[in-house]
Amino acid sequence: MTIVPNFQTAVDPQKLEKLAEVAIKVGLRLEKGQDLVITAPLAALPLVRLLTKHAYIAGAGIVSTFYSDEETTLARYEYAPDASFDKASDWLYEGMAKAYANGAARLAISGDNPMMLSGQDPAKVARANKANSMAYKPALEKIANFDINWNIVSYPNPSWARQVFPEVPEDVAVGKLADAIFAASRVDLADPIAAWAEHNGNLKKRSTWLNGERFSALHFIGPGTDLTVGLADGHEWHGGASTAKNGITCNPNIPTEEVFTTPHALKVEGHVSSTKPLSHQGTLIDNIQVKFEGGRIVEAKASKGEEVLNKVLDTDEGARRLGEVALVPHSSPISKSGILFYNTLFDENASCHIALGQCYSKCFLDGASLSQDQIKAQGGNSSLIHIDWMIGSDKVDIDGLRADGSKVPVMRKGEWA
């Protein structure tokens, strides 16, 4: 029998309680009578219990949680027949999509071991990911189109903590990661809810300025990077809190430091290098270098995980095009922490980034009223995937390009100009 150690003593219970409260009250702004679907690693059970408590305090109808587990995931790769890797639990995702269509909110707890699948056959990983992405699409569309209020928070899974802090004992690593999560999520402050209100106001000022400028493109210049990202017709910048189509204003990501919008899927040119590793589905992809022509990635390299990267890019036609561009100052709290989290939720908020794949319909003027055909006509991308990776640093400059060809400084050396 495997004895599972209890790391709860390494996690501050009061701050964990605050994180749960912030996730429900700020992240989701769950309404009375609203159902909630939670997905979580099994290790995050202590946080799930607190989230469930605060959801019911807020008046939730029913809370349903679906757990994942590293050992059972790895058992599939060791023992499952080959045909298994082309299958996914479509019935489960159809059920989730139905729940969202009926008004349920969605909350995901991030915290899986970022290297969980690093020793597995990349071809099997790619096949499983593609099957899962196809099955998940009905649910993902409800989320990506902001039909519902949704939120992602994190829990310091021991296997994740070991990757981030490999030089200390596991219980110490869990404590250090927990403290980093709490600080980035602003729950180490006396009044986290007030702090989030102030932070959302600051992000709103940035997005309002960008929306007023109506840039036609952004130009990124830095080591290994000379990239022009055309912006979609009628694009709209967002940051912090967003109002979903159901009328609820939520903070989808906790933490968040970004303002973001939709690129034009056909108008990205040049080359760009990643500035941080990308942890994707248990594989670390490092030193990504890609070349865009006509909005499409035509060359892709990586010093680690290149095979997985190229299989991701072959998921579908939209996987080689961009669905998001986001601006984050190098001096963001997560960047200043100096911690590489190997987790996109955190690392993307330390750096400007772009995302392969599906765009957010929210990032268009009057996006709620646009059809999928209209979004495509305005330059929005469609794909089974949405994968953020980091391209910003203190050595990257960004200019906003106007339609008349004039330039406006947006960032210099990674900071707002």
Please explain how this structure is put together.
By secondary structure, the chain is an alpha+beta fold. The chain is built from 12 helices and 21 strands. The strands form 5 sheets. It has an 8-stranded antiparallel sheet. It has a 5-stranded antiparallel sheet with strand order 7-10-16-17-18, covered by helices on one side. The mean pLDDT is 94.
What are the salient characteristics of this protein?
8-stranded antiparallel β-sheet, 21 strands, 417 residues, single chain, alpha+beta
Instruction: Name the average pLDDT.
Output: 94
The share of residues in extended strands comes to 15-25%
Q: Helix coverage percent of residues?
A: 25-40%
Shape: globular
How many β-strand runs? 21
Helix and strand topology:
Layout lengths: L12 H16 L7 E6 L3 H13 L5 E6 L1 H10 L10 H12 L3 E6 L11 H23 L5 E5 L3 H7 L5 H15 L7 H22 L3 E6 L2 E7 L6 E2 L2 E2 L5 E2 L8 E3 L1 E11 L4 E3 L2 E3 L3 E5 L2 E6 L4 H8 L8 E6 L5 H4 L7 H4 L5 E5 L14 H6 L8 E5 L6 E5 L5 E6 L2 E2 L1
Parallel strand pairs: 1-2, 1-3, 3-4
Antiparallel strand pairs: 5-6, 5-19, 6-11, 7-10, 8-9, 10-16, 11-14, 12-13, 14-15, 16-17, 17-18, 19-20, 20-21
Summarize the structure.
The chain is of the alpha+beta class and 417 residues long. The protein is built from 12 helices and 21 strands. Helices cover 34% and strands 24% of the residues.
